[in-house]
Design goal:
Elements lengths: L1 H17 L11 E4 L5 E7 L3 E2 L5 H20 L17 H4 L1 H8 L7 E10 L6 E11 H10 L9
Antiparallel strand pairs: 1-2, 2-5, 3-5, 4-5
Length: 158
């Protein structure tokens, strides 16, 4: 009887550990390359968006870009040259500077993005939705200057 009970408990614990766990929504993003000073190649994964909308693929790519850039800005990438975040205050800075970030995430960030290569996927469990993976180069020097100019971060050394 004890063996059966222990087996059931062990099996339950095993199934519980396989359940979907909470994780940072940005944790799938990666630094792909940092060959030149001032730019970095990132890979971001977009969320599922409504595939019926006319601009669904654009929305999915924007989500992929946003997640990768937010990881760079607020968390950094462990084990890379970007292990420290650019903005140390964290994502709460987006509330403090709401007007800037609304404009930034609605397309303003695209000034800093080049060489975007995007792949699209249909959702597995739902019909009429799409997701994107984007590998893109980000000019982080220009981005940093823009953040300094708008008093989001302090200038280096000040």
């Amino acid at each position: 009887m004890k063996k059966i009970y222990l087996t059931v408990v062990l099996f339950s614990l095993l199934l519980g550990s396989c359940a979907k766990k909470m994780y940072s929504p940005y944790s799938d993003s990666q630094v792909i390359n940092h060959a030149t000073q001032g730019s970095v190649t990132l890979k971001g994964y977009g969320d599922e968006v409504d595939g019926k909308k006319q601009k669904s693929k654009e929305d999915a790519v924007r989500m992929a870009h946003k997640k990768a850039i937010q990881q760079l800005l607020y968390f950094g990438f462990v084990g890379t040259d970007f292990k420290n975040p650019i903005i140390r205050e964290g994502i709460s800075v987006e509330n403090k500077h709401k007007a800037f970030f609304d404009k930034f995430w609605n397309g303003g960030y695209e000034r800093f993005v080049t060489n975007s290569k995007d792949e699209f996927y249909d959702c597995v469990e739902k019909s009429n939705c799409v997701s994107a993976v984007s590998v893109f180069t980000l000019n982080y020097n220009m981005l940093r200057q823009e953040l300094e100019k708008n008093n989001i971060i302090n200038k280096i050394g000040f």
